[in-house]
What we know:
By secondary structure, chain A is an alpha+beta fold. Chain A has helices at residues 14-23, 29-44, 58-61, 81-89, 141-163, 204-214, 221-224, 244-247, 341-362, 403-412; strands spanning 102-103, 169-179, 189-196, 227-231, 241-242, 251-254, 257-261, 264-265, 269-272, 278-282, 286-295, 302-311, 318-327, 368-379, 387-388, 391-395, 419-420, 424-425, 428-430, 439-441, 450-453, 456-460, 468-471, 477-482, 485-495, 505-513, 520-529, 535-536.
Amino acid sequence: MKRNEFDIFRNSDDSVLEQIAKEYTVLTDEEKERMFAMSERKYNITNNSNGTKEMFTEDSAAEVRGVERYKRPVWSRAVSIAAAAVLIAGGVGGGAYFMHTMKKTAPGKDEANIGTTVTTQVPTETTTEFNLFDNFSSWSDEACKQQGLFFTDLYSSIEMDVLRKHLKYDSNDFLTFHTDGGQSGSEGYDLKWYKVTDERYPDMGTIITRYSQLYNAGIPENEAKLFDSGWTSAEYPDGCTIPYEKSCKLYMEYDGQLYVNSLDYDTYFNGWADNDIRLIEKNDDKIVIERTGYINFTDGETDNYRFEYIRNSRSGGLVVTSITHEKKSGEQASTNGNTDNESLDVAKEMTEKFLTFENKVELGHLKLDENDWFCINIEELYPEGQKRTPKYCRVTESGYDSAEAITSTLFELGMYDYVRNGLSIHGLGAVDEVANGSTVDVDFSNAFQYLTYDGKLYICVESIHPQEMVWTDDTINIIKVDENEIQTSRKYGYKDSEGIVSSDGDFYLVFKRDGETGEWRHYTHGIKNKETGAVND
Amino acid sequence: MTDMELNKLMIESPQLARRALFDEYCNYVYVIAASKLGSVGTREDIEECVSDIFAEIYRFCDSSSYNGGTLKGMICTIAKRRAIDCYRRLSSGFGRTVSIDDEDFSEPAAASRVDREAEENDTRRIIMEKIKELGEPDSTIVIQQYFYNRTAREIGEAVSMTPGAVQKRSSRARRALRTLLLEAGISY
């Protein structure tokens, strides 16, 4: 039975569809939450300011944010080493992500603060005076700012209400769990979870909805770890021991009721300084606005937060594509002109390491044994049935000749993000059994750039790039520097077999300092197209 | 949760009722949307469509037209109507014009077409029975792969198998299904 023949189900009668829905459920919790959040937003968007309902039409659908891949922009959450130390002193070993972002609330002092009144207002969708189908350039400045106010207030409600826990919860109604010490082997500790009583946040779905209104694809990955639902008293009775991973949740739903962890979560953002929205850029494609916000761990120090929003190409609505922040004018972070030598040295070393990674691992410029090879038979899924037999040759270059070796090398190069779960690299599959020079069947989903067999690493010859990537200029442009992050760009090109180097544009790289070891690591990268100016991964 | 309980909740707490209604019917609505859009849309399109459907359901429940009756029939009607709208929009996006002869053009059914649909419905029911006869996890793999268009990796996560193993089982399951269908007089 082929895929298109299965289209007979496209017009199934109700009983068949009902059977599939009942017996073959497929939706994950994440998918459900995403769709629920979208439906809530679409429902709410038709409520105008006086609360009356309007009929939902195709036109109004254009206002809705759809599902689009959203990569949270590069910005840093404050990491409190001292806060982690409080936990460690309490008998809990460090090492996990959450240790850096949560701290135990000091007993007595903070207990008194529990249940404080709400300080932020959840923003409501403004009644727009502009047509969403118009180019942004035809919008009035006031309309752009109005939309900016909505997005920035929404951001504040998430950061302050949810992450900083400025919501109402009952300090006398709590659950207590003992958590094990995770991999540290320590004895663990007790944690309280308080019942959330804030009417604005009746359940986890409401929090998810708030996120989805701002971040188009739902909760950013690092914050998604803070939420958990589906706890039951049957599985986790009050007072029991819970796994360490569970104790790292900031919010959880227990028998359908929302609870908040007694641990605190530090965020960099600490509220807006005022309501002044500044329009930075407005063109056909995007709008950039700026608002001044207080930052944590300082005495009233502020940053300028920039929100960039564009039109959703599918629905025509608006989506926030980036939120960045920097020191206010006059206190700009270091740039190329006054960057300290240490940052430049780090940027130079890290860009060279990245180049090694790019050429060796991504472009496949490795020493091979061409006498040790095999082919794989794969059947493409699209179009179904089309077959290919790519050839794989054994990699013999030291440091790259096995899965373990290449993993170790990637760590040395600071490419932690390329190593999956610390075990193996992305794009690595395995072959069960194959003789030298023969062809073996491999299913499509396992046909990666690299395959291992018998502990040896093989590379797909088709994937090897004919040219070498090079930096075409020694100058390293430092875009932003702070204690834990360096954003940089460097001009790049490709060298062909005759040594002729092309000029392809700028490579953008971001490096971050590991909070635990202090070492610098690759965080993300992208290239700027020299013709269009677009930046892509 | 029963319809009566949902209707009661709608009066007491509309917000909680929307959540409960979504939890109760999201699988059903998703299946309806997937059945209509599977051949023309992406998964994101299906999710968009499902959210459109629920937004419309919520609004209908708010409206004076809703009298607190059976939810399932109302949900099914809205879901199918909205899914067909999405299908038309997506089809036109692909440069395809929906003809009045097209199966998804919702004209009143002619007598001959009613016969044909009845026959096809029987066929679908037999296919479902045979898929079920494959046993688990094969039946789940086949449905997830061919009805929901899920990848081997996603199916693997759902049934605790490697993507490679999913592909192998899927291949065997298809062969077995073909045999079962031939025995039942259905040729694919």
